[in-house]
C-alpha cells in the first residue's frame, strides 16, 4: 500500500522558516517602494513631471526669503528692462525689479488661492450631487433648479461686483468663483452618482441597514473619485487663469505685491521694446496649468486601466519583440509534425507577464501541449487560476496588455500562430478561429441592434452586400435555435434574455465561418435548462459543420457531455491529457481524481458518499510555483520524489499523458481521494520556491 499524505497547513513549517522570514524583512521595504512606484500617478511620465514641477514651485516659493537674490521690491536702475544676465537670471521689469524673484514670490499665493476654488467648487458640487442622487426626486428637483439659476448668473459681473463691494480680497473672490462653478460640477457628477445609487451592491447595503449617509460615503463617493479628480484638476487650472486675468485687468493683489497676472500685464506694455518680459511669467503660468492637467489625467484613470482592450504602442512593441524571438527559435525535432489542415497542435506553449521569456518576469502558463483534431471538442478543465483562459486567449493572440506568449508553437493550417504578426492574426481571427466569451453581453454592443452587429460582422468577414448579409444574419440566428429571428434582429442586447444573448454571441462567432471555436465557459452564467440547450447547439454545430471546439470550463459534467478529449490543467501546466472517457473513468493524476471525488455529478445516487471530498488549500500564485510537482502541497499521495520536476509522459495504459511520478502505482493500488480530513501528523510540507523581489510586485489577476 502506498502511504498517503495530505498538504500541510499554512503554518506547518513556520518553526523552520524563521531564517527565511527574517531574511525577507529587508525586502519588504523594497516591495512596498515598488508597489508605491506602480501607483497610477507615477505610471505617467507627464504626471511625474507635473508633480515635480508643482512641488518645486511650492517649495521654492515658500522658501523664497532664504534663497532669492533680491527682494520683490528691490530696484536696479542700471538694468531696467534687461534680458537674462548673470545677476538677473530671468531679466528685470520696467522698474528694474528681478523677474525671477517676483515669479517665485507670487507662486505660493497663486496656487493657494486656486486651491480655494477647487475645495469650494468641487466639494460643494459633489455634496449636492450625492444629496440629490440619494434623497429622492423632490430633493433632486429643488437642487437642480437652484443650480440652474446659479448657472444662468453672469459670473464675471458677480465677481466684479464683489470686488467693488469688498475690494480685491482674492481668497473671497476665489471662494465665490468656486460657488458659481459648483453648479456645473453638480451637473457633471449627478448622472454618475444616480447610476451608482442604482447598483446592486447599494441595494445590498440598504438591506444590511446602512443609512443614506453611509451609502453615500462608503459606496457612492469612491465610485466618483476619478470624476472628482479630473474636475478638480480642471478647476485648479481654470482658477489660476481667472486669477491671472483679474490681475491683468487690475483686480489682483495690491501694488507692490507681485502676481503672475500683474506681471503679464506689465510685460504687455513693453511687448515691442522688451518682448522678453512676457516669456518667463507666461511660460511659468502655462507650465503650471499643463502640470495640473497632467496630474489630473493620470489620477483620473481607472485602477484597471493598465489592461486596456486596445494594446498600447509599448505593448505592441513588446509583442513584436516576443514574436521575433519565437520566430527565430528553430522548431525542435520532437516528433510533432506539421498539423494537417483543420487540426490545432499546441506544443510547449508558455505565456508570461513582462519579460518572462528572458527570465525577468512571471510565467502564467508553462509548456502546455495538446492537439485538437478536426470535428472534435477539447475541454480545458481546472480550478480558477490554473491558466485555462490564458491558454485559450493565446490561440487568438487576445492576451491582456503586458502578457504575451514567451515560447512554444501554436500550429494551425501550416502556420505557427505564436510567431504570427498582428497583421497576420487579423486574417485568422473571426475567419478561421473565433471566440465565444464567458459573458455574452461583453461581446454585444448595447448601442446597436443585434441585426446591425451581425450584419456588420458578416460584411466585414465575408465581403457580402448589405441585403445579402442581412439574410445571412437571419439564417445564422435560425441556425443557433432562435425561432423569431426577424424580431430578434431588430432588438437591442438588453432586450433579450441571457440564454438568447449567448445564442446571438455564438451566431456572431460563426459569422466568419471559422473552423475552430474557442468557447470560454459559455454556459457558466446560464441556468441548467439553457445550459443544456447551448451544449446541444454546440454539439449540432460540430456535427453539421465539422469545426473544432476548445471548451474552457469548470464543470466536469459539461466535459462528459460534449468533449471528446480533455486536458486537465493545474498551476499553469497540463497534468493529464487524453480521451474523455478514459480520464473520467480511470483518472491517473491525483488532481483529476480529486476533482471527480469533489463533483456530486460524478457519483451515482446509490453510491453517493456521506461527505464529498475536498481539496485543501488553493492554487498557488505563479510567483510561488514550486520547482517540483505543483500539486504536491495539496496532494494526499505526495512523497519525497514529488519535489523534483515531473514531465508529462505517456501513462502505463498507453492512453493519454499524465504528469505524476506515482500515476502507475496509484492505478495498480486503486487508491481513492479521501473524503475526510487527514490527520495532521500525515501532512507533508512542500515549500514553494522563493520569489524574487520583482515577482513579488506582480499584481495577481484571475487566470481562470
**Span between termini:** 36 Å
What's the number of extended β-strand segments?
Answer: 14
Mean pLDDT over the full residue set: 83
* Shape label: elongated
Strand content: 5-15%
Strand pairing plus helix content: what structural class? Answer: alpha/beta
Task: Please explain how this structure is put together.
There is one protein chain. The chain is α/β, with parallel strands linked by helices and 704 residues long. It is 48% helix and 11% strand. It has 26 helices and 14 strands. It has helices at residues 18-37, 45-62, 64-67, 99-135, 137-152, 155-166, 170-197, 200-207, 212-223, 225-248, 260-268, 278-299, 313-328, 388-394, 422-426, 440-443, 450-462, 466-479, 485-489, 498-509, 528-545, 556-562, 580-585, 590-597, 663-669, 693-696, and strands at residues 6-7, 344-353, 362-372, 377-381, 403-412, 415-416, 433-436, 516-520, 548-553, 565-570, 573-579, 649-650, 657-658, 683-684. It has an 8-stranded mixed beta sheet with strand order 7-8-9-4-10-11-13-12, sandwiched between helices. The longest helix is centred in the N-terminal third of the chain and has 37 residues, at 99-135. The protein is elongated and about 100 Å long.
